[in-house]
Amino acid sequence: MGKIKQTMSKTEIKKSVLSISENGLEKPVSNKRLAVLKTYKIYIGGQFPRTESGRFYVAKDSSGKQLANVCLSSRKDFRDAVVAARGAFGGWSSRAAFNRGQILYRMAEMLEGRKAQFIDELIQQDLPKGKAEKEINTAIDRLIYYSGWCDKFQQLFSSVNPVASSHFNFSVPEPTGVVSIIAPQNDSLLGLVSVIAPVIAGGNTCVVLASETKPLCAVTFAEVLNSSDLPGGVVNILTGTVKELASWFVDHMDVNATIYCENDSVIQKMMRDKAALNLKRVFFYNDINWNGDKGQSPYFIMDTQEIKTTWHPVENIAGAGGGY
Amino acid sequence: MPSVKKTNSAQKNNTLKLNFDTSWSYAPAPESKSAATINPQYDLFIDGQWQKPLSKKYFNTINPANEEKLSEVAEANEADVEKAVRAARNAYEKYWKKLVPKERGKYIFRIARMVQERARELAIIESLDGGKPIRESRDFDVPTAANHFFYYAGWADKLEYAFPNRTTEPLGVAGQIIPWNFPLLMAAWKIAPALATGNTVVLKPAETTPLTALKLAEIIQEADLPPGVVNVITGAGATGAAIVNHPGINKIAFTGSTEVGKIIQRAIAGSDKKVTLELGGKAANIIFEDAPIDQAVEGVINGIYFNQGHVCCAGSRLYVQESVAKKVIKKLKDRIETLIVGDPLDKNTDIGAINSKQQLETIHKYLKIGKQEGAEMYESSCSLPGKGFWCRPTLFTNVAQSNRIAQEEIFGPVLAILTFRTDDEVIEKANNSPYGLSAGVWTDKGSKIFNMTKRMRAGVIWANTFNKFDPSSPFGGYKESGFGREGGLHGLHAYVNLVN
Questions:
Q1: What's the gap in Å between the CA of B116 and the closest CA on chain A?
Q2: Could you tell me whether strands A281-284 and A257-260 are parallel, antiparallel, or unpaired per DSSP bridges?
Q3: In chain A, is it the N or the C terminus that has fewer CB atoms within a 10 Å radius of its CB?
Q4: Partner B, chain A 161-190, Cβ-Cβ below 8 Å
Q5: How many interface pairs between A and B have CB atoms less than 8 angstroms apart?
Q6: How much helix, strand and coil, in percent to the nearest 5, is found in chain A?
Q7: CATH number at residue B152
Q8: CB contact under 8 A, B424 and A318
Q9: Are B161 and A298 a contacting pair at CB < 8 A?
Q10: Predicted TM-score (pTM) of this structure
Q11: What is the value of ipTM here, to two decimals?
Q12: Structural domains of chain A in order of their starting residue, each with its CATH number
């Protein structure tokens, strides 16, 4: 914690020093209250553990000022998170679509209520105040947007197929399963929300690696998720380095799809290559401006959906019918 | 314990009797009225404010379960309608149509949340004012109304996906006239899609059940909607006619009788007004011999006795395949004996009060007609409360296809039972009706279900279930049951112009 203390000014440290009064009891020399610093932990299965590896890295702002010690998650943390995500998939995907919509809306409500905290963290992570406000507002509205889609995209992307034989034949989208996501490095809150929301709106569960350089909002967003009626394990959030974790995100055999949001062609090639192991669906969201209207669409939901077609015979007896 | 006599008759029919007999009886479990506030008098909700009616007239709304006055509400005349339409027009031009769609959606989400928050109060008032069992208003009417607002809120900023290759524009001011059978739910069905697509609204609830719509107006005020976006005005037929005939209205949405629907369609001839009509029905509910009989019997009971049979899509014509007819009729008779008729606020009540004296008279008229035409009437032996409007759950056997009770909508807890032998015959009989709102099929054979759903001329068909509703599922009729759909993606179309 020594490094963190450096972020406090010297006078603050002086003021917080205790002195011994005449009667021997401790007495503060000043009334100034010492702030309680938050421990930024990861989010797995609805719990906030520290990384099993015990490692940390220091998140800094652009001036080099240290913001927090952050968990340096390991391969084992990722595997634990996948177990949690797989465990949550059955329940989450079988919820009524309407219910998922209500929960995403609840997430937006919780985020709205904690706006000040996010603005504060975004400013710490180098955004000017105006942009920080815009980012949190857009993030809240984005959750509302996808809340609305939860029970609507199916009607747009389903079909009744006019097959020539006497069958009732229909196709509907269904969630693909567990999705691993490496969130955008910039837009540390909005980018994160924009990649998580369509995946869970469609009934998938996910494991997300937060922005490496700006991880604070991601951890705080996990606290929002944790108080939003979202079942544990639906969204799992890790902090750590892309370099170390990217390959595990894409070669785990119990992951169905992977989303990567940066331009690094070496990582992209590695991902395509490793994804072949179990035919993961791989999506690169590298050219998307999350701030604009192109940063949201039902096609993001459809990326992590499978189409299921059902055939059912139609009996052909009786000739009466349509004449009335 | 089952009596010896009953057991013998069951054996004679070669069926197992459902054992509903028990020495236990239900203790009263009344919902408390204290969780609801009803003002002694309600004005008109116009331009975001409660305004005294220019007509200076008020009329009483009573509790049909005891005939006691609950409140009095304003009776809007033509001048009041004029005021409401002007407020709606003003709100449309100045504010609502210019509002960013996602912000429009957020207002509707607010309404949904507030309806959820005040669900208990709304349920109590719905049961007090309309007579329906609290179990239904609590578990069906109010939550479904909230869900409808929530569903359509999400559409507000997604319309470009609903109508590919076209841009949408709102119609303007929608005049909406709703019935007394599901007062709050019908208000939600009408208001939610209209607002989501950018229209403003003048809504008139039915004269016997105005209170939950007025409560909804309170919620809309609390949700801080711009004044005039939703106006709620109360009154009877004359008020409705003033809305229909007002030149400032761009769209009429009406749910009610086929008779009034035809009057509306004539009235708007020669104008540019768009219209959707959700009218009467005489649903065929068909039981094949291979159906799971007990499940089908429950479905038939729900189909006709839900909301005292005041349901436009009620399964009021039962067609049973001859081979199982005796068994089904026996089970239905046993089952209606167990239905609890009484205080709508009692949580055990299955069948509440008939909505109004007038409706009770209509039902009695049809009971008489049914007997005169030679059908056999059977009703539950339950006792009825002394005050208020009540009707025992009733069924008719030996009904002919041409009997009026098999052709006309009774809108009460009265089931007409007919039989059939072949698929061909039942399709012919089921489709032989001026109505085409809904239908039901009961069979274990999937391919038969789809054969029936394909051939039946009705807008909603329930297979091995009945009376199911969801905001995402379109609802509306064929033929004289009206046109236009409410609910789902299809429900949006009634409130937009498609341009480009």
A1: 12
A2: parallel
A3: N
A4: 168
A5: 95
A6: 40, 20, 40
A7: 3.40.605.10
A8: yes
A9: yes
A10: 0.93
A11: 0.93
A12: 1-37 (no CATH), 69-310 (3.40.605.10)
